[in-house]
Amino acid sequence: MSFLYVHIPFCKQRCKYCTFVSTLRADNMDQYISCLVAEGALRRSQFSNISKLDTIFLGGGTPSYLGAQRMCKLLDGIKSCWQLSDNYELSVECNPESVDMELAETLVQCGVNRVSLGLQSSNNSTLATIGRLHNVQQFDNAVGYLSQCGITNINADIILGLPESRQSFFDSLRHAVDIGVSHLSVYALEVHHNSAMYKEIKRGLYDVPSDEDYLCDLYDDALKLLSKAGYNRYEVSNFAKEGCECRHNLNYWQGGEYLGLGCAAHWYIGGKRYRNATNLDKYIESVDNGKRIEHCYECVDNAGKMQEKIMLGLRLAQGVDVEQFEGQFGVAPQVAFPRIADMIAKGMLIQANGTLTVAPDKMYVLNLILAEIL
Amino acid sequence: MEQRLIRNFCIIAHIDHGKSTLADRLMEYTGQVAKRDMEAQLLDSMDIERERGITIKLTPVSMTYTYNGEEYLLNLIDTPGHVDFNYEVSRSLAACEGALLVVDASQGVEAQTLANCYLALENDLEIIPVINKIDLPSADVDGTKAEIEDAIGLDTTDAPLVSAKDGLNIKDVLDAVVQRVPAPKGDVNKPLKALIFDCQYDNYKGVIIFVRIVDGSVKVGTKIKMFETKGKEFDVTEVGIFSPKMYATGSLSAGDVGYICASIKTVSDTKVGDTVTDAKQPCDQPLKGYKEVKPMVFCGIFPADGSKYNDLKDALEKLQLNDASLVYEPDTSVALGFGFRCGFLGLLHMEIIQERLEREFDLDLVTTAPSVSYKVFTTSGEVLMVDNPSKLPPVTSIEHMEEPIVAATVYCPPDYVGAVMELCQDKRGTFVDMTYVDTKRVCLSYEIPLNEIIYNFFDNLKSRTKGYASLDYEIKGYRTGKLVKLDMLLNGEMCDALSIIVNEERAYARGRQIAEKLKEAIPRQMFEIPVQAAVGNKIIARETVKALRKDVLAKCYGGDLTRKKKLLEKQKEGKKRMRQVGSVSVPSEAFMSILKIDD
């Protein structure tokens, strides 16, 4: 199985909470796309055993900001490097305001079968505060265009803990449920020190809820609401209707390897983690001049792989497959990490049916459990 | 140097009255230190001293001064000004014939100055009053003179009027020292007899002893011995004076103040107050030495990292060499592991020692709540001294307990009398007397349990009087008190390091405060943690540290993994630094936070 992540660093406007690698420039999009395709060809020959991709994920930034034509050129370019497997998943992240009928049609024509929409909130004033360009009507329209074109596997991102009321947060969840998305990512807000939001909070423009209990209640109630509506929590922050789990992301959590294209893209292959040049100009320059684009920043040994398997696997509702773990490492999880037994005894972890999982009500204190066992 | 040309003197002053600044000026004037080398307040050689503007350790210095065509050797021994360090003062005094009494012309005589002055008079020292800070607009020279005459009975007619800050009239002080301080009266021809007034440890030279030579002489090669640590003899490898850094002179004789190195490797081979003599030709009688000081305040000191126990032990050993008033013995705590129970002269002393351990020896410490020494009368007729709450016998075998009471003297401006009285009352004080020293100052006398004094009394006093009040206290005796042991329970398990002995009436309030503090200081964990305060079997307060509900990283995709691993490592590190009390992880700060209770 093979997985590819493609990073599109362009944004029309930067969201206040965002610290990802992105740029407001738009003059070099075409050049960038050529570079992505060139890098694709390079990787294809470098890793010749990977000929077919099972999933492709276009993330950003704002991939939809590329527009229909460039999107088409990019996806065609990638497909010229690799074949897609029969049952592939091709996801594209879109901002609601940049999805129109033309883009929706193009996406379908290019084989996109999953779209992730950044709704964040259904409250227009919250959206304005956090620097989003869309309103809730535009989100509804986007979902409409996509479904009309046949893309029904749609995710909505919603942020928990925004500067808004509890009511607003649940309205957003219900809005997404009612419009019929198949997948929801509910991320707790993290205010990073280098974000615009951090500065605005410091200046007293608004405040975000920080009370642990309040936020946990939001999460617990969201979990209830969504499971009642037929969405399973298959990962800490991800909820999906049966069969609509994001396979590309599942691979991360199962400790799988993946390729990456584009500036700031991470990739993990042969037990090594790489990061491409984070600066857009530097990335383009490196590709154009045949210089090294990536640098390897971590070599994961066997012990590290075991740790990651547990660390990531426990984020999933399906947990860690004990037999598969033993097959891969030649040792059972409880033998590699003896404290697991204690956590099972304390009811934090559950071992049943050949899997090791976190007790459903302890999912949100996963780090505490990991700090104990690893 | 002939004895008639030597003057040994010290300076007595209240904190902030300018003692160290005056010492600096004297050194500067006599050319001991070039101005460019002056670091403000040279004698305060410890960082803590300079930072806090206080003198803790006495530091000697030798200066030469020409008067009427003759060159004199002036040995100055600095003295600390804080109430906790009376002990150090008496050490300085024993090595001197005279004292400068420095009084701030804008503040007048303070309680502590009086106490030290009486000590000096007891030691038959010639006291020369010096009026300082005459440059200040608020200076009242005549008033200050009158006060010195009234309160101490010293003639102030010839008192030098100086401004140490501006270097005004410093010569008058030096002249007065030569004219009025008597020359030492030792006999150079008698066998060596020298008083050890301080020690220091040097990694290369071993123990360096600071001495005042009373009779005889000592030079490189002399075989010496100490009276109290009998048997051991040492060959002198270096002798010298302080100028103010150590300066080898080859020999010292009667009347001199200086240092001796004799390859003394073991800290316990020397004792401050002991007498040094010639091993081949010893003197008959040792000098009187010092009154043994009794520690008043006790606390447990533990290494934050259990494996640093031996480092802490070494550090305490070296500090004690240089501060004999520090006492300690090994202690163990279920919660904190191996450490030491330490005794101090007072709260400031305790803080200073903790700070020196952390700074000079680079140790991370966990300290327990300060305690005093209680007299416990058992039902079997025994009397025990208990300074560690965890050593208190079971309630059923205690007949009654007594606590130390101090006679406290507070000087303050009349405006603050109400505030001071209220504080003393709050602290279970018994009013004794109130007198007006003059129109500007009132002297209040109270009897207060010492265990109330050690809980922020001094800080409280300062804040309630905008810093104007001064405090002096001495142990008056023991008095029966209704005392109980207050225990803290974490998840039902008693944490020995958090127990304190308190007055019964105080137990409820203090138990509640400590429980609240602990609730703040203990991080949320896997399970809910009840934090309870108990007296005997009775729970008197309860707080709850709720179970942790959220710590997971919301997003974790390819690029987040490294960050996540780092977070996890940090979390594990943090956990390692915590102490385990039963199933509860308690951070070091939690033990310390209960020290900061204000009531």
Please explain how this structure is put together.
- The complex is a heterodimer of chains A (374) and B (599).
- In chain A, helix 3 links the parallel strand 3 (83-94) and strand 4 (114-120).
- Chain A is built from 15 helices and 15 strands.
- Chain A is an alpha/beta fold.
- Chain A is globular, with a radius of gyration of 21 Å.
- In chain A, the strands form 3 sheets. A 9-stranded mixed β-sheet of chain A has the order 7-8-6-5-4-3-2-1-9, with helices on both faces.
- Chain A has 2 domains: 3-253, TIM Barrel (Alpha-Beta Barrel); 317-373, no CATH class.
- In chain A, 41% of the residues lie in helices and 22% in strands.
- With 599 residues, chain B is an alpha+beta fold.
- Chain B folds into 5 domains: 3-180, Rossmann fold (3-Layer(aba) Sandwich), CATH 3.40.50; 193-278, Elongation Factor Tu (Ef-tu), domain 3; 297-367, 2-Layer Sandwich (Alpha-Beta Plaits); 375-481, Alpha-Beta Plaits; 484-596, Alpha-Beta Plaits, CATH 3.30.70.
- Chain B is 25% helix and 34% strand.
- Chain B has an 8-stranded antiparallel β-sheet with strand order 10-9-15-6-7-14-11-12. In chain B, strands 20, 21, 22, 23, 24 and 25 form a 6-stranded antiparallel β-sheet that branches.
- Chain B starts with 5 loop residues before the first strand and ends in a 6-residue tail after the last helix.
- Mean pLDDT of chain B is 85; it is low at 35-43.
Q: What are the defining features of this structure?
A:
heterodimer, A: alpha/beta, TIM Barrel, 15 helices, 15 strands, 41% helix, B: 599 residues, alpha+beta, Rossmann fold, Elongation Factor Tu (Ef-tu), domain 3, Alpha-Beta Plaits, 5 domains, 8-stranded antiparallel β-sheet, 6-stranded antiparallel β-sheet, 14 helices, 25% helix
